Automatic annotation (TrEMBL):
Transmembrane domains' residue ranges: 6-23
Alphabetized UniProt keyword annotations: Membrane, Transmembrane, Transmembrane helix
Protein's UniProt name: TNase-like domain-containing protein
Highest taxon of source: Archaea
Domain TNase-like: 51-188
């Protein structure tokens, strides 16, 4: 075999070997990236959201506040411990069930008794929001808390009245649910408002059609 043919043969062997290597390498990457089914494995709407503690619901106090027992703090936060605590749903504000609380919002109820207040639309919408949260979070239900890192003008992660400020997630059989988003979407814009308090959360996102945790 002359030198020219030998060189061509050598080049051919190198080329075939290179193609085999590339094919094998790409196939192994595709297998791990797409999985056994051949479909790309990505975190879909049912994938877990970010959360920093787990808890169980002890009581629904109103449409934006719950009483919980914190079970486990996964990411340490100052003042957050394994104990009974109140959690205020971040970024939303619903009507009040007590006239004493409603007086700070509505001049028209300042001179009302509790029984008179319970005849108003304010109270009816407050009760609707509370019942909604109770339906979503049954007593002893496990919840997942994402604390608001920007809350805490008074104490870290807490609001004016000492309640922890958080997004509350539940995980029923059909997938993850953002309770804050559920309450906001059911009452917005007439009777459930997006608060103007400083927050890490973007509540407008919860109103978008493609928001996954509903």
């Amino acid at each position: 075999m002359d030198r020219k043919n030998l060189a061509l043969l050598t080049c051919g062997i190198v080329l075939v070997g290179g193609l085999i290597f590339i094919f094998h390498h790409t196939s192994s990457q595709n297998f791990s990236f797409f999985g056994k089914s051949g479909k790309k494995e990505t975190e879909g709407p049912s994938g877990p959201p970010h959360y920093e503690a787990t808890a169980v619901v002890k009581e629904v106090l109103d449409g934006d506040t719950i009483l919980v027992e914190i079970l486990e703090v996964l990411i340490p936060r100052e003042g957050v411990e394994n104990k009974i605590d109140k959690v205020r749903l971040a970024k939303i504000d619903v009507e009040e069930t007590r006239v004493s609380d409603a007086r700070g919002k509505h001049n028209s109820v300042k001179n009302m008794s509790q029984s008179e207040y319970e005849e108003t639309d304010y109270y009816r919408h407050a009760l609707y929001s509370k019942n909604l949260v109770e339906a979503l979070l049954l007593e002893e239900n496990k919840v997942y808390l994402d604390f608001d890192d920007l809350a805490g003008n008074w104490k870290p992660y807490r609001g004016k009245f000492g309640r922890l400020i958080a997004v509350v997630y539940a995980k029923p059989e059909e997938g993850w649910v953002n309770i804050n988003a559920k309450v906001l979407r059911r009452g917005f814009p007439e009777h459930t408002l997006i608060t103007s308090f400083k927050s890490e959360f973007e509540a407008d996102r919860w109103l978008e059609n493609d928001y996954p945790y509903l």
